[in-house]
Amino acid sequence: MKGAILKSTQEPLVLEEAKFENQNIDYVEVKLYSAALNHRDLWITKGQYAGIKFPIILGSDGCGHFKGEDVVLNPSLEWGPDERVQGPSYQVLGLPTHGTFAESIWIHPDQLFPKPPHLNNLEAAALPLAGLTAYRVLFSRCGLTPGKKVLVTGAGGGVALFAIQFALAIGSEVWVTSGSNEKLEKVKAMGAAGGVNYRNAGWDQQLKVLTGGFDIIIDSAAGDSFAALIGLCRPGAAIGLYGGTLGKMNQLVPQVLFWKQISIHGSTMGTAREFAAMLELVAKYQIHPVIDSVFSLEEVNQALKRMEEGSQFGKIVLKIAD
């Protein structure tokens, strides 16, 4: 079994025969059709992630074949008994457990779910981590229901695009921000009501004039711009935060938070129940993941470079087998 192996940070992945296979007597081998990249993989290669070990096969997203059935892999491992928060044994597939950048993977059968029949193998591989993250932050944490007005920041990333697609599917009015006018036009073509470029001065006030404010805001950046999101909240609004690429949230005004009864929900990945519900939503509304580009397994380092460039719109996928 060939795998793309990380042997040290700041070095390319090496495609070679993997000698470490079955990691648990309860695991089964799944032949993989495809895998997809997440920023997590890039951060690990740069040493910007906790608990890195070597050698390791990266990759949290995958679609494969097991016992005559096409399956997608739930990358959320050992969540624990409390649906509100992951337990101490929780981990994400691809570190410390070997992941999907390989011809096959050993994994517990409870992590395997039937592939939504309307998706091809590349689309199915694009779905798991980002789709699960978007589902939990939208529905479980922020309580999205039809008719709500939703803002999704940073349109173009995998989680953000799934959040847009899920919210649109159930009848929400969706607005977005992006640092690219081209990406704003692409999202509007998907059905978003509109958006603004956050690189423009006064972008938040422009949104406030256009929309009157939001019931739910989904963000992955945090940083100084988070205070502007507070100002865009309607009374009783909820903000879902699933990342923090811009760091600490300065300049927050607590009076606005408590007077408008605003809720801020941190969110990470999700449970097996939420993964199944996400797949059901995708199948019900015939949602197709947005794919930016496709590389072969041999081109995994080029795929990581594409992600590092930051210009992608949608998921970067590895085609492993037909």
Question: How would you portray this structure in words?
Answer:
With 322 residues, the chain is an alpha/beta fold. The chain folds into two domains: 2-127 and 289-319, Alpha-Beta Complex (Quinone Oxidoreductase, Chain A, domain 1); 132-266, 3-Layer(aba) Sandwich (Rossmann fold). It has helices spanning 39-45, 121-125, 128-141, 158-169, 181-190, 203-211, 226-231, 254-259, 272-284, 300-309; strands at residues 2-6, 14-17, 28-36, 56-57, 61-66, 69-73, 76-77, 91-92, 104-107, 112-114, 149-152, 173-178, 194-197, 214-219, 233-241, 263-266, 291-296, 315-319. The strands form four sheets. Strands 3, 5, 6, 9, 10, 17 and 18 form a seven-stranded mixed sheet that branches. A six-stranded parallel sheet has the order 13-12-11-14-15-16, sandwiched between helices. It has a three-stranded antiparallel sheet with strand order 2-1-4, with no helix packed on it. Helix 3 (128-141) packs across helix 4 (158-169) and helix 3 crosses helix 9. The chain is globular and about 60 Å long. The protein starts with a strand and ends with a strand.
Q: Can you tell me the CATH class of the largest domain?
A: Alpha Beta
Structural class: alpha/beta
Supply Rg.
19 Å
> Quick one: CATH superfamily of the largest domain?
Medium-chain alcohol dehydrogenases, catalytic domain
Number of domains: 2
Number of strands: 18
Helix content: 25-40%
Could you tell me the mean pLDDT? 96
Q: Figure out the total of helices.
A: 10
| Low-pLDDT runs | none
